[in-house]
Specification:
The chain is of the alpha+beta class and about 325 residues long. Helices cover about 30% and strands about 25% of the residues. The chain folds into two domains: about 140 residues, Double-stranded beta-helix, CATH 3.60.130.10; about 140 residues, 4-Layer Sandwich (Double-stranded beta-helix). The protein has eleven helices and 17 strands. It has a six-stranded mixed β-sheet, with helices on one face. Strands 9-10-8-13 form a four-stranded antiparallel β-sheet. Pfam families: TauD.
């Protein structure tokens, strides 16, 4: 059986490499500069998986939206089938997940629990936190390679089943699906191969089966692409996890993850996956007006705990 070994990667070199593009010397506005460098920006993301644009003059949320649409070459996506609380602003720009400042958001590829996900993401730092609050990244290709083979092979063989219960503790189904119509929810579920059951008038449970890994459509590289570690009941910190299971029962947990055949995932395997993420994670110190562009299949993102006011926005396509 494989043992999880220390991962020998020089992450310090990643932090200081070509992926940070300091544009503070540019005299044009952020939008004007982006319009004249679209091909170059996309080449940076295509080559490296992400790019941090630093020093641009950005004056509004609307300008950020236009910048992303200019770079992505298409309108931004609406965020439906949500898994976390956030506020919608104009033009499909959203606040990042609004969990309390003392909570860490684990590494994840956006919407990897779904059969539809954004290929590109853009983050905009409006107000950096006084301390902490960075958006750590990890290379999904390296995560795939470094997960012990006995764990990786079982996940690849069986896939992941995501189970969600809406409304009691987690987000209400009306917010997740962005509608008050049960008919529209059911249509969305059928269209997206999501099993659903109304346990009561306001209690919806869904199950969705997804692969644990994926092949990037452009690079052809294999990536670890799931949120089993994020959904699994063991991801709840401290005594809260056991207390929640005991009070409402494991079948009514707001979210949980199983192997695709419905069998339990060993919490020790989830812990090893999280250890791989921790060892491969690196981050940049947010500065005001930073824009971070990601290939959502090649890189995961998360959030550090923080102190002070923090405002980071996101758009996807």
């Amino acid at each position: 059986m494989d043992q999880l070994l220390s991962i020998d990667m020089d992450l310090d070199s990643v932090n200081t490499d070509r992926r940070v593009h300091d544009l503070s010397a540019e005299k044009l506005s952020g939008l004007a500069w982006v319009k004249s460098h679209v091909s170059e920006i996309n080449q940076w993301v295509n080559n490296d998986g992400f790019a941090l644009l630093r020093g641009l003059n950005i004056v509004s949320t609307n300008q950020f939206s236009t910048i992303l649409e200019t770079i992505f070459g298409e309108p931004l996506s609406q965020y439906i089938y949500r898994s976390s609380p956030r506020t919608a602003l104009r033009n499909n720009i959203y606040t990042t997940t609004e969990y309390h400042a003392d909570q860490v958001i684990l590494q994840h590829n956006e919407n990897a629990y779904s059969n539809s996900w954004p290929m590109r993401m853009g983050f905009f730092c409006v107000i950096p936190a006084r301390s902490g609050g960075n958006t750590p990244l990890a290379d999904s290709r390296e995560v795939y390679k470094h997960i012990p083979s006995h764990i990786r092979e079982k996940f690849e063989q069986l896939g992941v089943m995501y189970v969600r219960n809406y409304g009691d503790i987690d987000l209400p189904w009306q917010e997740v699906f962005q509608t008050n119509s049960k008919v529209e929810v059911q249509e969305y579920c059928r269209k997206n191969h999501i099993e659903f059951e109304w346990k009561s008038d306001d209690h919806l449970q869904t199950r969705q089966h997804r692969p644990a890994a994926a092949v990037h459509p452009v690079t052809g590289e294999k990536v670890w692409f799931n949120q089993a570690h994020l959904f699994h009941h063991s991801s709840i910190d401290g005594p809260e996890s056991a207390a929640m299971r005991n009070s409402i029962g494991i079948d009514r947990l707001p979210r949980n993850a199983f192997y695709g055949d419905g069998s339990d995932i060993d919490p020790k395997d989830i812990a090893q996956i999280n250890d791989v993420y921790r060892q491969l994670t690196f981050s940049y110190q947010w500065q005001r007006n930073d824009i971070l562009l990601l290939d959502n299949m090649l890189y995961t993102h998360g959030r550090e705990a923080y102190q002070g006011t923090r405002k980071v926005l996101v758009g996807m396509a």
